[in-house]
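Supplementary Methods, section 5.1.

A reviewer requested that the exact input to the structure prediction be made available. We therefore reproduce it here, unchanged from the version used in the analyses.
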Amino acid sequence: MANEDTIKLLKECNAGIKMGVNSIDEVLDKVSDEKLRNILIESKEEHQALGSETHKLLNQFHDEGKDPNLMAAGMSWLKTNVMLAMEKTDKTVADLITDGCDMGIKSLNRYINQYAAASAEAKKIAKRLIDIEERLSDEIKGYL
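The structure derived from this sequence is encoded token-by-token as follows.
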């Protein structure tokens, strides 16, 4: 049986993955550069694969996961749509995604510390998600 910290950390990872996939989906049709589009699609696929793994673990613990915070998701959607309405460019997309990655990395590190008793497997998933976010942010910096 998993300890409570393990389940909580996995749930936060699950919510973060959903937020990342939703954010990428929100901007994909606004991207004009094919290379940027491919970077985003590849990252989305990585998020989804890790999400499936996370969801499978949560199912083993009889937990259905967690949706992103409604307020955070709403604010993200609003910011994305306002910024893209003002300037629909790849630079704006890169700026939005980079901000999202930074917030995700910060939150995940906080959750790793907060749920210190989580299993090594749960911490490994959180660190893999951090790696995905860091790599995405690095790959799109040239578009800022």
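The chain has five helices and no strands. These observations are discussed further in the main text.
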